[in-house]
């Protein structure tokens, strides 16, 4: 009897003094574990006479309960202290001063997008946007891209798996396979089917193609432009692109070269090169020592105008398209497209722009 009381006093005192959770666990094993001292006492009940068991049972069970309660209490106290220490260590001093200068910067793609929107706004173009998940009809069919065109192949286009909608659609709103848009042209298709001409829009945004190497990323940024009005001709196209490229590269000596080309959605189609001059081994836009391709364009194909429900004898137009990432590389002198999307803070610090920066030709133009 006196032994059990002494045992309880000692055990509760040692538990109350356990320094941490692992020391406490050691004590739990020592008293209540399979080979524990309290457990051993409980086992002796089996060998006792009924009278003995009647008197000893409540005492030994009482001891087990006190030890168990002491462990639970100590555990709660140690955990509370641990949390308290952690919170104390994580205190944020809100009275600290703000950083001397802003830490973030504007990504070159955002900078160039803003420049493009501003230049075209000055020429009377509105900015149009649309969904990145499109249907087969708006991305391909309405643009006179045939069923057999290589761009439609699985290895170029990211299609969504959807058996119910399998196959192309014949008209707008008829469903058809869903896909990640491969260009921003479906935005122009949406504009032409939703509003009356005259139309003057640019459509900037993300586009997706199943392609990946030093000069291609599966997602990139495109900008397209569209004008639909009466009596539009190639002269309007050339003036618009020349005015745009001179403003963008901030030089009056930008020279354009128009080469005949082919796109299903334009007829005739023209590829646009800008001239460059080599200064100290670097290509600088302006002059005509060499040529770099910067845009694809042409007069909107009659079939595209018809597909959008307009009369091609009444309405004509021109369209163009180019890569925003590529324009940024040319203007600001980056050479690896993949770095655009790595999110490396050092690259962003080097090439990023201050929030209200005025664009300059600092980087020159790369290859
Ligand atoms: C390129 C060429 C181009 C267009 C895009 C277009 C859109 C409509 C109708 C007709 Cl709705 N054309 N867009 C036209 C010519 C070229 O892009 O090389 N892009 C990277």
From TrEMBL:
CDD domains: PheRS_alpha_core. Belongs to the class-II aminoacyl-tRNA synthetase family. Phe-tRNA synthetase alpha subunit type 1 subfamily. Mg(2+) binds at residue 267. It comes from Croceibacterium xixiisoli. Its EC number is 6.1.1.20. It is an enzyme of class 6 (ligase). GO terms for cellular component: cytoplasm. Tetramer of two alpha and two beta subunits. GO terms for biological process: phenylalanyl-tRNA aminoacylation. It is found in: Cytoplasm. This is Phenylalanine--tRNA ligase alpha subunit. Keywords: Aminoacyl-tRNA synthetase, ATP-binding, Cytoplasm, Ligase, Magnesium, Metal-binding, Nucleotide-binding, Protein biosynthesis.
